[in-house]
């Protein structure tokens, strides 16, 4: 204890007198000034502003916590999305019961990977349909494949790969080869889809020379586009046959409940099943005539995941699943009024637009890089 007190104990008898004199002068009316260095440090700390939290690098900055914001292509009068990947993600989200909202961006945005669909969740972007489903499944503890055995998971993985890396390219080739049939088959109104005032005849021509050309280039790079039309159709029929045999007479591929394979199959088979009957497409006819169990699968998933399907196709509303204000008018927003069910070839309304930008938007479906 004596050693600890040494620093505070005066070493000479004069020291107490100095302390006494100082206390007398001060008399409690003045305060001891801090050292100059300490004063400066305090001033710097006072002037230093608090660092603002970093702004989220997303399009939806006023997001609601744990709400999934889905970016995809616009609706059509035939089916909610002409992109099997967009339809896949939205179907899975609905079956999983996750709260979500479509962002009606008129196909203007792409993910950082350059793809659609993508989602934003709590200020972060998630791109690529497979990664989206995986991340959302982990975040919300929703796994449609939770009840599958190891063998069933392997079969599911193989079938999903066949559908997305082979069958979907058969459909992509047809769309690129016959762009007019694609537009008519899905009753796409390009003016509505691209949010432009350019007349449909001009947009249709641009579509042929941009999206169709890009689609064929992709198909050839993939390899499917190097074959004859007859060979490509046979490829598609073989894939349909495999899926039909696996499904057999079951409600879903692995029993009474839908899994990821059912979602992927539905999203791709719907692209065939709902093509307008006035458009000639042999692969659609083959599925409807020879594989009624696949048609039944499409119907079951549609009724379970999209009870508002007719409303979606009628109004082209991106968020038909969300409650609407009672005083909202029928045509208060574009896409909530009656749908234009065909691209009007005689539409002569004039408008102006950035042609270069429109060329980049002509393609109605961006394939995800797997």
Write up this protein.
It is a single chain. By secondary structure, this protein is mainly α. The protein is built from 16 helices and four strands. It has helices at residues 2-5, 14-26, 36-47, 84-96, 129-140, 150-177, 179-185, 190-194, 200-209, 211-222, 229-247, 260-273, 282-290, 292-305, 309-315, 355-361, and strands at 68-71, 100-102, 118-121, 124-127. It has a four-stranded mixed β-sheet with strand order 2-1-3-4, with helices on one face. Helix 4 links the parallel strand 1 (68-71) and strand 2 (100-102). Helix 4 packs across helix 12. The radius of gyration is 32 Å and the shape is globular. The model is unreliable at 1-28 and 329-370 (pLDDT under 50).
Properties at a glance:
single chain, 4-stranded mixed sheet, 370 residues, disordered N terminus, 16 helices
Please give the count of helices: 16
Could you estimate the helical fraction of the residues in percent?
40-55%
* Biggest sheet record: 4 strands, mixed
Q: H/E series, N to C?
A: HHHEHEEEHHHHHHHHHHHH
Radius of gyration over alpha carbons?
32 Å
What is the terminal separation in angstroms? 74 Å
Write the layout of secondary structure elements.
Layout: H1 2-5, H2 14-26, H3 36-47, E1 68-71, H4 84-96, E2 100-102, E3 118-121, E4 124-127, H5 129-140, H6 150-177, H7 179-185, H8 190-194, H9 200-209, H10 211-222, H11 229-247, H12 260-273, H13 282-290, H14 292-305, H15 309-315, H16 355-361
Parallel strand pairs: 1-2
Antiparallel strand pairs: 1-3, 3-4
Helix pairs in contact: 4-5, 4-12, 6-7, 6-10, 6-11, 6-12, 9-10, 11-13, 12-14
């Amino acid at each position: 204890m004596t050693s600890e007190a040494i620093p505070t104990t005066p070493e000479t008898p004069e020291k107490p007198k100095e302390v006494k004199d100082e206390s007398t002068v001060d008399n409690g009316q003045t305060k001891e000034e801090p050292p100059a260095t300490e004063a400066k440090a305090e001033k710097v700390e006072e002037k230093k502003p608090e660092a603002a939290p970093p702004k989220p690098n997303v399009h939806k900055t006023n997001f609601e916590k744990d709400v999934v914001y889905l970016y995809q292509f616009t609706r059509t009068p035939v089916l909610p999305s002409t992109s099997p990947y967009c339809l896949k993600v939205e179907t899975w989200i609905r079956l999983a019961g996750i709260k979500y909202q479509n962002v009606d961006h008129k196909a203007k945005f792409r993910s950082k990977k350059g793809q659609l669909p993508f989602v934003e969740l709590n200020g972060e972007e998630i791109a690529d349909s497979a990664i989206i489903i995986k991340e959302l499944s982990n975040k919300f503890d929703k796994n449609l494949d939770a009840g599958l055995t190891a063998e069933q998971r392997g079969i599911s993985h193989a079938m999903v790969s066949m559908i997305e890396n082979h069958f979907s390219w058969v459909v992509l080739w047809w769309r690129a080869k016959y762009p007019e049939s694609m537009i008519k088959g899905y009753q796409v109104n390009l003016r509505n889809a691209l949010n432009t005032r350019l007349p449909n005849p001009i947009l249709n021509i641009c579509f042929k020379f941009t999206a169709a050309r890009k689609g064929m280039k992709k198909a050839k790079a993939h390899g499917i586009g190097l074959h004859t039309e007859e060979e490509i159709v046979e490829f598609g029929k073989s894939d349909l046959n495999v899926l039909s045999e696996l499904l057999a007479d079951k409600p879903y591929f692995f029993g009474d409940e839908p899994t990821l394979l059912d979602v992927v199959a539905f999203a791709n088979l719907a692209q065939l099943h709902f093509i307008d009957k006035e458009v000639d497409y042999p692969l659609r006819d083959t599925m409807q005539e020879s594989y009624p169990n696949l048609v039944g699968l499409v119907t079951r998933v549609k009724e379970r995941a999209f009870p508002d399907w007719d409303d979606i196709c009628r109004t082209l509303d991106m968020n038909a699943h969300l409650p609407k204000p009672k005083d909202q008018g029928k045509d208060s927003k574009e896409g909530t009024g009656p749908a234009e069910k065909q691209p009007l070839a005689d539409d002569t309304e004039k408008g102006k637009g950035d042609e270069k930008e429109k060329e980049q938007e002509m393609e109605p479906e961006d394939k995800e890089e797997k």
